[in-house]
Amino acid sequence: MSRSQPHHSPAPSRPHPPPSDAHRSLCANTSAIRSTVKHLRDQTVSLAKPRSRSTRMDPYDVEGGAINVRFLHADSVRAHFIIQNFNLETANALRRVMLAEIPTMAIDVVEVMDNTSVLADEFVCHRLGLIPLIAKGVEDLLYSRDCDCEGYCEQCAVVLTLNAKCTGRDIMKVFARDLVVSAGRPNEDVGNPVIVDPERQGSSIVKLRKGQAIHMRCIAKKGIAKEHAKWAPSAAIGFEYDPANKLHHLDYWYEDDPKEEWPVDHDRINLDGGAPTEDEAFNYDAVPSRFFFDVETVGGLDPDQIVAEGIKTLQRKLAGVIQQLQGGGDGADGADFGGAQSPTLNGGYGAAPDQGYTTPYGGNASVWGGANAAAGGTTPYGATPYGGGPSW
Amino acid sequence: MNAPDRWLRDGSATSWQPPIAQLIEDNPNARQRYRMRGNHLVRHSVYSNRNEEKIEVKEDTRVPSTTIFTFNKEDHTLGNLISQRLHKYPYILFSAYKVPHPLFAMFELRVTTDGSITPREAVTKCCADVVRDLDVLQQSFTTEWLGKRIVTEGEAERQARDQNPN
């Protein structure tokens, strides 16, 4: 079933919040978030930052201490941004999730019908596995292992057929564009090969000489990079904090003088409050609060989608912890964080007596339900796994 | 029977560490890398086994207000996040995690509070706070991304116009 409903309006079966209250609860939610953040910040400040340092006017922090993002660069393959007033453990968790735990599509099983090319079957299959596929709308697909089918079906896989034969005198190259996607997918995006080059060819697979042929059925499945790197959504994620090394988290190796031998990134240092003065005493209480991210996509997801999905996946993981710890640990068959399990198999979390995620926080359903409507995707808690009834 | 009970089977209640040999015996991962769920191959080290608890909770009987949480099929992503975040709350006396063995996809989180709140509640609250922080981050990110994309596209358009006046 495709998701035709607008994401910001709650499904009719969900108890909270009623549609007319959506706006109000969003506002209430924002203030709840603010107070939580403020509360947390007060604690952090008392633990960590001496006032003399943090009261110095920071020209880059216009938000006055709330978590915020500044962009340095944004295009179709790259998102280069700074997260300010954040903390190291959450920034690092986000980085790790974006690297390894966002669901994407990749060819997982290949049926070889014919291969008379010079490359061995497994060689070609490996290359096929590494071809980036569009992952927009993977949430419409089930994980194959959670599907009731035998092997694979339309609910959990996309079939791409490769059938090429060289008949001419010239050497023929087979590209990702030659993969024919089967009909019956849940949406028109998932599983298409990523093609971004000006010639519209996509990744190169094999070369064929006259008379050679290749015929393969490739079954693309949903997965995460923790299982195999072919499911990684990001080509690379740059991550840095404290470029001037004021916190001494780095201990530079040197022959004579580290200042002479190591390059300095002046731009970043300027973005991070400037270089330390010569006689500046070491601040033992300082903690990193500004993080440079540089997310580059393989092509399956837009860079902003990688970040959005990363945040969502991490939130789901944490929601899974909350769910299990509050449920008294009886959820042996229900808790797989990060959405790595199909909720439809066990009736979904919505069937739990505590209505998923709404109760623990004083009935403030919007904390979990409505906050992310602007993100364009489903909210982590609004959609199936922890919210109301299943919506796909 | 959950794992910590078995670790104490020899009666030595003085150790909360699982013996490595026991870990190997317990973890099918040590014997085979995959298991079949129906016709589907499932990699042990990544995906949850429905027969095992995602989080096993064990009270430490020797130290008050102390709990050891064993997270199965989770790694440093969650371990570091929760244990470090907990340090920021005044009622936490101790919080740390460890991965007993790198080949087994699990970590143990040990949390001691001052008694005003149980470790279980502390972890729950900590997770909820992180989720809220991430909501703020998400909203800021979306706004800024849209803004930056508009600027970038405008610049590209202007450059294209400059190079090609007609």
UniProtKB/TrEMBL annotation, chain A:
MF (Gene Ontology): DNA-directed RNA polymerase activity; protein dimerization activity
SMART domains per UniProt: RPOLD
GO cellular component, one term: RNA polymerase II, core complex
Domain of life: Eukaryota
Bias kind Low complexity: ranges: 1-11
Oligomer and partners: Component of the RNA polymerase II (Pol II) complex consisting of 12 subunits.
Similarity comment: family membership: Belongs to the archaeal Rpo3/eukaryotic RPB3 RNA polymerase subunit family.
Protein name: DNA-directed RNA polymerase II subunit RPB3
From TrEMBL, chain B:
InterPro entries found in the cross-reference section: RBP11, RBP11-like, RBP11-like_dimer, Rpo11-like
Subcellular locations according to the entry: Nucleus
Pfam families registered for this protein in UniProt: RNA_pol_L_2
Recorded GO MF terms: DNA-directed RNA polymerase activity; protein dimerization activity
Keyword Cytoplasm appears in the UniProt entry: no
Keywords of this entry: DNA-directed RNA polymerase, Nucleus, Transcription
Domain DNA-directed RNA polymerase RBP11-like dimerisation: 68-139
CDD domains: RNAP_II_RPB11
GO cellular component, one term: RNA polymerase II, core complex
Domain of life assignment: Eukaryota
Gene Ontology BP annotations: transcription by RNA polymerase II
Entries under PANTHER family matching the protein: DNA-DIRECTED RNA POLYMERASE I,II,III, DNA-DIRECTED RNA POLYMERASE II SUBUNIT RPB11
Family membership: Belongs to the archaeal Rpo11/eukaryotic RPB11/RPC19 RNA polymerase subunit family.
Name of this protein: DNA-directed RNA polymerase
Source organism of the structure: Massariosphaeria phaeospora
